[in-house]
Specification:
The complex is a heterodimer. Chain A has seven helices and five strands. By secondary structure, chain A is mostly helical. Chain A has a three-stranded antiparallel beta sheet with strand order 3-5-4. Chain A has a two-stranded antiparallel ribbon with strand order 1-2. By secondary structure, chain B is an all-alpha fold. In chain B, strand 1 and strand 2 form a beta hairpin. The two termini of chain B are 34 Å apart. The chains are: A mainly alpha, B mainly alpha. At the A-B interface, helix 1, strand 2, helix 3, strand 3 and helix 7 of A face helix 1, helix 3, helix 5, helix 6 and strand 1 of B.
Chain lengths: 205, 565
């Protein structure tokens, strides 16, 4: 150990900090804004000039009769600590272990709520992913089947025909990325925006 | 197994296999001072920079000096992070006006990022300003892994008969020639996939269901690029890489997997090229690869089969979806988690706490051995620990003085290797035992039964392995855990690093004994097989009892449909 090390360590830290702690993030931000402005801004979705959400961030539709429901979310309000589904400012999971009674009860409650809102829905028709919460609490997607089983309810409540709504589901469905990676799924916000537009358009379909 | 799972695994693992040699060759160029593409940019400012900071690039350090310089730079880093977090309210780039971070969390976070653990006892999106994220934590995510790589480089130099080199030069070259150019590239790829990169603050959205909400934004892509490139694993938000803001698509998921693996596997190639023993490097790669595939299967099979208690409800689908994101699929989550654990990144796309017990066993095993490629240089060092222990064991069995790379392995080497190995179970088991004993610590457990023990065990394992992922049900912000985990992270990082530097130097000083027909070969199927067995047996001896009480007991309770309230 030499005393010169202390000087070198301090100088090096400051020099590399200017390069890696400041220049790197700022320059990268500049490049990103230049090359991919939409994504860099958070892939915001606008409707009539107003931001209504971000393409990748799920929103809470659970319990809304007119809309398709997404997966349950275990996020908590940062202020009260009470459940507040899809709180984007406090992402997180339920962290329930596989032998926790709360996990089983939560799934059972979600199943009952789905069955109450969608009369005639059989247990065997409900995809497990629609009643178990995600890792981030912000999962934007559900499976195509999970959307289709909700068509009769949305149809009844909005007056849009089942055929039309099923077509919207297929329209909103996304294949695996490049057909190779991930899963086939429906972005719930994108689907509900289609429903919203259909309801609020001047000429109804 | 679905088609997309197969493709994801083939592409991810194939890319990493292909990377072993070229990345190793590039690292060898960088760390033997041969010209690279980036010298044109960095050559001149670097010379000026070294002169100003009193670093003589030709000045080789002893192991003690190298270790001292490493610890010193990391201490400066730790202090710097602590101060920046404590005064963040007075600093710029704080669009959400977050207040200063409180002392215990600031210390825990500083220790966590300086040691490359990136354990997070706070929720990023509602605690830290953009400035704290990029100028304090983002910066640490360069220096901490660069320090680890420098240590590995010095050790490999010693094995190849070269002097250890200069720590300051190695860190600078690792940052400018390896991390920075790759980080810019990866960050742009992530933005392309939809990761935000902006300083504009959170976005207000007017929801179609009425009301509004804030969508967190920030320079997330640049943060996550270096988080994975350096196997740091720090998340910009609390949900880490599970958050669609950080990991929006299955493609970004794959980008992360390849990004975090490329340097750990490259360091295996680097070892082979530097020592001129590429055959041995491939043997080690295969041993680590076999363990990797084993853990991938251990994760995938139970997660795809699902939770038997939930499956008895008779719903559609059987996979375990709790704490999983739909867009990656079980296969994508499996490869990410296995990679993150193997490469010691510690970023997560799933709620680790909600994994089925056998799947979590894979994560535990990965962190116990910490050499299934491992991260930030430490992986290749840990692999060498096991290689030396294996050589020693074989030497005992056949009754010859053990040799490694033409050097005799004697008391000092075996003692240092044993120290580097034993500090790990000591910290994990000691920390867990203390937490189980103290009521204040037991109080932080959120699950009853065997799973509760797993939560504590996971925390200390993750800290000692400088991994940073968590069974997040544990209340990590309790004073006991913030302090105990910070101490474990620091000891778990620097004790083995220093021991290995001393070990390298000790080997370097020895006379080379010529190889004869009687010399034990340290490559090929026989040695690989013995090494694999030694890794499994030695770790099982240390950890099997606690594993039996945690995940294994939980597995049998789950099979018996036993519930805890």
């Amino acid at each position: 150990m030499r005393w010169g090390f202390l000087k070198s360590a301090l100088w090096m830290s400051v020099g590399l900090w200017l390069l890696l702690g400041l220049a790197y993030p700022l320059v990268t931000t500049g490049l990103s804004q230049w090359f991919f402005p939409r994504q860099a801004q958070g892939s915001l979705i606008r409707l009539g000039g107003r931001v209504v959400g971000a393409a990748h961030v799920g929103q809470n539709f659970w319990g809304q009769p007119d809309y398709f429901w997404g997966r349950p979310s275990a996020t908590l309000s940062p202020l009260t600590g009470r459940p507040e589904p899809y709180d984007a400012e406090n992402s997180g999971a339920s962290n329930l272990g596989p032998t926790a009674r709360k996990l089983l009860v939560g799934v059972e409650v979600a199943v009952r709520q789905l069955q109450a809102a969608n009369p005639g829905l059989q247990r065997g028709q409900i995809p497990l992913s629609l009643v178990e919460s995600s890792a981030s609490g912000l999962d934007p997607d559900i499976t195509v089947r999970a959307a289709l089983i909700q068509v009769p309810r949305v149809s009844k409540n909005t007056g849009l025909s089942r055929t039309y709504l099923s077509a919207l589901v297929q329209l909103a469905a996304r294949a695996p990325e490049w057909g190779l990676f991930g899963t086939r799924r429906v972005n719930v916000l994108a689907l509900n925006l289609l429903v919203y537009r259909s309801l609020h358009a001047t000429s109804r379909p | 197994m679905s088609f997309t799972t197969a493709v994801t695994w083939l592409v991810g693992l194939g890319a990493l296999l292909v990377a072993v040699k070229p990345v190793g060759a590039y690292l060898a160029r960088v760390f033997t001072g041969q010209p690279t593409l980036f010298d044109r940019v960095w050559g001149r400012p670097e010379r000026w920079f070294f002169r100003a900071s009193g670093v003589d690039p030709a000045d080789d350090m002893s192991a003690a000096e190298y270790a001292a310089a490493l610890v010193l730079v990391n201490l400066v880093l730790l202090g710097g992070i602590y101060v920046l977090l404590r005064v963040q309210a007075s600093l710029p780039f704080n669009p959400q006006h977050f207040s200063d971070v409180r002392p215990s969390i600031a210390f825990n976070t500083a220790a966590s990022f300086a040691t490359n653990t990136n354990w997070q006892a706070y929720a990023g999106e509602r605690t830290l300003s953009d400035f704290s994220q990029f100028a304090a934590l983002g910066f640490a995510q360069f220096i901490a892994p660069a320090s680890g790589i420098a240590a590995a480089v010095a050790f490999v130099r010693a094995l190849s008969g070269r002097k250890l080199g200069n720590f300051f030069v190695d860190v600078t070259r690792a940052c400018t020639r390896v991390f920075l150019p790759l980080a810019v590239l990866v960050a742009l790829l992530l933005v392309w996939q939809g990761v935000p990169e902006t300083l504009a603050g959170y976005a207000q959205a007017h929801l179609i269901t009425g009301g509004h909400e804030l969508i967190p934004r920030g320079p997330i892509a640049s943060f996550d690029a270096i988080a994975h490139l350096g196997q740091n694993g720090g998340g910009f938000t609390r949900a880490n890489s599970a958050n669609p803001l950080e990991n929006p698509t299955a493609v970004s998921n794959l980008i992360y997997i390849i990004t975090m693996g490329i340097l750990p596997v490259g360091l295996f190639g680097f070892f082979g090229i530097m020592t001129g023993r590429m055959r041995m490097a491939w043997t080690l790669t295969v041993v680590a690869g076999v363990l990797f595939l084993g853990m991938l299967a251990l994760y995938y099979v139970p997660q795809a089969a699902g939770n038997p208690i939930i499956n008895s409800l008779g719903l559609h689908e059987t996979a375990n979806w709790i704490g999983q994101e739909l867009r990656f699929g079980t296969g994508g989550s499996a490869l990410f988690t296995t990679s993150s654990m193997a490469f010691s990144t510690g970023s997560v796309v799933t709620a680790q706490d909600s994994l089925l017990p056998l799947a979590s066993l894979g994560s535990f095993f990965s962190m116990f051995v910490n050499m299934v490629f491992g991260g930030k240089g430490v992986g290749v060092l840990n692999m060498m620990v096991f290689v030396i222990l294996t050589v020693f064991l074989i030497g005992l069995m056949v009754g010859r003085t053990p040799e490694f790379l033409g050097k005799k392995i004697e008391t000092r080497e075996v003692s240092l290797a044993s120290l580097a190995f034993l500090v790990h179970p000591f910290l994990i088991l000691g920390g867990t035992a203390l937490a189980v004993y103290l009521p204040a610590a037991r109080h932080g457990v959120s699950s009853a039964g065997a799973h509760g023990l797993s939560e504590i065990l996971y925390a200390f394992t993750s800290a000692a392995a400088n991994n940073g992922s968590a069974f997040a049900g544990l209340h990590a912000a309790l004073p006991f855990y913030t302090l105990a985990i910070a101490v474990v992270m620091i000891l778990g990082r620097y004790v083995p690093l220093c021991a290995m530097l001393l070990l390298g130097e000790s080997l370097l000083r020895k006379r080379t004994v010529p190889e004869t027909v009687g010399t034990l070969r340290t490559d090929g199927v026989l040695f690989g097989g013995v090494l694999l067995a030694a890794v499994i047996i030695v770790n099982a001896l240390a950890f099997f009892p606690v594993i039996a009480l945690g995940p294994v007991a939980e597995h049998y309770l789950l099979m018996a449909h036993h519930l805890f309230s």
